[in-house]
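Let us practice reading a record.
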Amino acid sequence: MFKAITIVGVGGAIGSIMRYLLTDSVEAKFLPNYFPFGTLVVNVTGCFAIGLIYALSDKFNIGPEWRGFLATGICGGYTTFSAFSYQSIQLIRDGHSAQMLLYISASLILGMLATFIPIIAVEKLS
């Protein structure tokens, strides 16, 4: 278990650094910034990367350690949106369209609320 955690952790560190560098680079090109272009680029490229990783791992029988490093580690550190996207696609592929719609809706609505509620709570304390 420690080996798997280490592999994913190293991948996560690499992905986080990649996200920071790419977001910073993209945002610098679009100043003044009224739209989160950097995050959009990271989310879209992360989705492409996780799709490619899973497609290749299925085709070439890539082991769980490499999948953990690449998909959970690097892609997870880079953007969790890639995991959200992949899981949504898997629900469709498995014939669970209603669950996919529920997952997408719940993730968006609950995620926005989970971000908004503490912001409002902290503002009220001030």
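A brief commentary: The CA atoms of residues 21 and 44 lie 16 Å apart.
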